[in-house]
Design brief:
By secondary structure, the protein is an alpha/beta fold. It has helices spanning about 20-30, 45-55, 65-80, 90-100, 115-120, 145-160, 175-180, 195-205, 215-220, and strands at about 1-5, 15, 85-90, 105-110, 135, 165-170, 185-190, 205-210. The protein folds into 2 domains: about 1-15 and about 85-220, HAD superfamily/HAD-like (Rossmann fold); about 20-80, DNA polymerase, domain 1. Helix content is about 40%, strand content about 15%. The chain has a 6-stranded parallel sheet, sandwiched between helices. The protein has a two-stranded antiparallel sheet with strand order 2-3.
């Protein structure tokens, strides 16, 4: 069996910067700080990590304000995801449909998004049904600790032990690669985000695709 764990932003979809706008709008509403996340790198980080960096940057205590930031961010995200720039990455619909029909493949999420935010981002593309569970930025601030969480959730669904060698993380950043490798899993890199094929290869991905429209080689990698 394979447990395939997909990142969201840059891998499955492009939200049209809905997440960044929603974070900035949250800080503007709560703290009267405009463009609060300018200069903060977000690729591959968990939402909680990004929010804490924003609070620290502006000298705001996160102990008493993080929950308010989360709630306000999610409120704005519900609106901001409805933008003309959002789009699904090449080949995703077709790939997920083919994978969902394979008996020995389970599909899940491994994302830095808070779980409610992940579902908000996937809903307009009708992708949520492909992913019954996974691990999210709301489970742990440290992305490297998310893989074991996803495995435990799928063990409950599958009613069997899942070995780390059965897990493949699929993502577009070196952080996705590291999350897999530090736990002993394989990683498929996809260069549909901010990082090139060469950068993902250097990060240690086991295989790198230009995009996920290459269904033949993807299935070949899985020995299907």
């Amino acid at each position: 069996m394979y447990l395939l764990l997909f990142d969201i932003d840059g891998t499955l979809i492009d939200s049209g910067e809905a997440g960044t706008r929603s974070l900035n709008l949250a800080f503007e509403k709560l703290f009267s700080v405009g463009n609060a996340f300018h200069g903060i790198s977000m690729a591959g980080k968990t939402d909680t990590q990004i929010m804490k960096e924003g609070l620290m940057k502006h000298g705001i205590s996160f102990n008493s304000n993080l929950d308010s930031v989360i709630n306000t961010y999610l409120m704005h995200l519900q609106k901001e995801i409805n933008n003309e720039r959002r789009h699904i990455k090449p080949g995703i619909y077709e790939l997920l449909e083919r994978l969902s029909l394979l008996k020995d493949v389970k599909l899940g999420l491994l994302t830095g998004n808070l779980e409610p935010g992940a579902r908000i981002k996937l809903q307009p593309f009708k992708l949520n049904n492909y992913f019954p569970t996974g691990a999210f930025g709301s489970d742990d601030e440290d992305r490297d600790r998310l893989l074991p969480i996803a495995i435990k959730r799928f063990e409950k669904i599958c009613q069997r032990k899942i070995d780390i060698t059965e897990c493949i993380v699929i993502g577009d950043t070196p952080r996705d690669v590291n999350c897999a490798k530090i736990n002993g899993a394989m990683c498929i890199g996809v260069a549909t985000g901010p990082y090139s094929i060469a950068e993902l290869v250097r990060a240690g991905a086991d295989y790198v695709f230009r995009d996920l429209s290459d269904h033949y080689n993807f299935l070949q990698f899985l020995n299907f």
